Structures are given as C-alpha cells and as structure tokens.
Amino acid sequence: MKRLLIIVALLAAGCGSSSTGARTADGKVLLRYQLWDTNQKPVYQKCADKFEQANPNIKIQIENKNWGDYWSGLARGFIADTAPDVFTDHLGKYPQFAQSEVIETVSTRAVNMDQYLPGLAKLWQSPDGRQYGLPKDWDTVALIVNEDMLTKAGLTKAQLDSATWNPSDGGSFEQMVAKLSVDNNGKRGDQPGFDPSNVKVYGLAFDPGGLTYGQTTWAGFAASLGFKLLDKNPWGTKYNYADPAFAQTFTWWRDMIHKGFMPSLEQARTLGQSAAFQSGKAALAIDGDWTIGTYSATKGVKVGYSPQPAGPKGSWSMYNGLADAIWVGSKHKPEARKWVDFLASKDCQSIVGTEAVVFPAIKSEIPKAVAKHEKDGIDVSAFTSYIDSGNTVLYPITDKAPQINLIVQPTLEEFLNGNDDAATVFKKMNSQVNNQLKYAK
C-alpha cells in the first residue's frame, strides 16, 4: 500500500475524503461500477437490470470516464476513499494494483473456469496463484478496410485477405499498401514520381500509443516471424527486444513511414487512427474488435475487415481480455463480489453476446455476437480467425510494467523519427528493461 501512496500522493493532493457504503433513498445498497467505454454502458445496464431483479436489495450505479481520465481518477479515488466499489480493470494495470493491495482477490470455487476461452483466466492470476479477475470479454486485432478505396486501386478484398508479409520487402501486403497510398498530385505509391512528403491518402494509418507491446501495431507482424517478447507469459522475467526479429519488424515499420505509405509519428498523433480512416485520409487501419461498431458506422464508406497479413508463421494477433476488479476500500464487498461474479457469468455474457459490442469470454456465448454482426451485414471472421487457428499472442504480463513503458515507448518513438541502427538501439533498450525486472519486488 505504501508504494501506491508514493506513486499517487501528488494526484490526491486537494482531494477530500468521503465514505463509500452509500445507500439509495429506499435503503438499497448502492454499488458504484465504473468503466471507460461509453459504447458498453448500455449493455452493462441491461446486465445490471437483470442482476437487480435477482438482488432487489442492491442498486448498480454505472459511471463512465474516458480512458485518459479513468486511471488517474482511480488513483485519486484509492487515496481519497472515493473509488468505485467495482471497476473494469486492464491487464496492463492490474499487476501494480495487486502488488499495491488496492484490489481484492476473487473466488473461483463456484466458477467453471473451463467455460472461458483458453488462456484468459490465467492472465488474471498472480505468480502465487491468487485470482484478481474473472474474464468478461476478449479481443483480437485485424485490418480495417475502406473497400471503396480498395476497388479504386484495382485491388480486391480477397487479395487483402490472403496478403503475405515479410520484413525484407513487405511482401504482397506492402505492395497493396503502396498502391493504396496517393499523393496530392494523384500519384500512387507504386508509381514513379510518388511524393512521400506530400501525401493525400496513406495506405495504412497507425496508432502511436501503446508501442511498448504493439497490440495494434507491430505485435502481430513480429509474431508471424516466430518472435516472443517474453521468456514466459504471464509473469515473464526477461524481455526479448534485442531479438533480430523485433528489429526487423520495427525497422520495416519505420521504412513504411519514410516511403510515405504511413503517416509520421507526429501526423499519426494529430490525426488519430480512427479519425484518419473515417475522414478518408487512410485506406487501412489496424485496430481491435472493440472498435467494430465505430468503424462500421463510418458514413459513406463500405467498411470491411481482413486478417493481418500472413508472415512465415501465418497470420497472428495479440489476444487480450478485460475483467472487473473490487476495490479493497469498498464498504459493500459481499455485494460487490456478487456483482463481479454476475458480470463474468453466462447470464450477463449472454446479454453481451446478443448486443455484440464486444465478444464475450464464455465460449458458448461467442456465436451470439457473431450472429448479431452477421445480421447487421458485418463479417467479423477476421477477428475470430485467430481463435480458430490458435495464432494468438497473450497480452504481456510482467512486474514493473509502468517503469518499462517509460523506457520503451519514448525509445521506439525516437527510433521512428530518426535513422538509428535498430540492433544498437534495441540492445541498449532491452538491457535497461531487463535491469528493471532484476529489482522487481
């Protein structure tokens, strides 16, 4: 707990203290439940309605905060005694929360852990076997496709679905991205005279956030070469950023920027990946299945989804999932446990599947989400293909994740902006990262 106090004490300055343990006017226990995705709030309200029918003495109050404010708000709440009773947690955050003792363990005694997709539950388990979350959903990453631009470039969706990639020449995937790139003089990226400094439409957009683990950037590409970021996962003890496969992959990524087929780091930050795609400034994007609703709603554009290009080892994706956490300071822990158990149960995940805002973690409920998308005219097989093939990489879990991110993210950003030798840069970065793990407690 002391470690957390040190980390967030400054954030808490000026915050007043208030007791949780609130009740409604008619005496019901009021549970505050917080999440960051506004698209998911209506779905979980339906779960809350069903939960309240079975538990008439409990009222669920669902609160939204955007991603940028969500985690700092939780940190302040942990100190000021104003945190929500239950909140949606992330794999990149929970190890620190668990070590700082601000979240409760959850019981698996009455839960059929085999009902969840393989690997998801294990990600929420500490090295000593304590469970800090029950899987509620899962996600993979695929190509977001402007099919109108694809057709205009003389390409087909079938060609993109079967695209190949390698770090040497980019394979057929780079050829397609080049053809989809158009400068302000109307020249395409595969034509003589294309101006990489004066681009109107980029073949591929990218999200510059999260480069440390590369969920929506390099992770799937590197995995298609057989690259493994950690010696074991979860709770790896050694990072492998010095592996030549990573250097080759990220160098190719930088080359795509230099060639004008992808925006620069600064442009990517300014545009934003989804905004670049939806405004017609990019023909392709790489994003997670949690954004299907956002992209599919793009006005005036026929949007499709394709698997990430296949490298020597096939087409791969990072595989992630969320869970809900109970704040250690909640004054209604028994009720909070009931709610968390319900969120991870078939009763709630059946609703999640039917609404299809995300894919539920329970295997039997996934077809409901697929069917809902099909009914809406959306083919989501690009996202489910990795589950079928087993070509997934679990989200990396280690100690010292915040400290490691402070090393890796700026180093990779600087690399994208320059011309430094990859082997030299990543060897030094890898040494710094692994030194952090040597002193992990």
TrEMBL record:
GO terms for cellular component: cell envelope. Keywords: Signal, Transport. The keyword Transport applies. The keyword Nucleotide-binding does not apply. PANTHER family: ARABINOSE-BINDING PROTEIN-RELATED, SN-GLYCEROL-3-PHOSPHATE-BINDING PERIPLASMIC PROTEIN UGPB. Belongs to the bacterial solute-binding protein 1 family. This is Sugar ABC transporter substrate-binding protein.
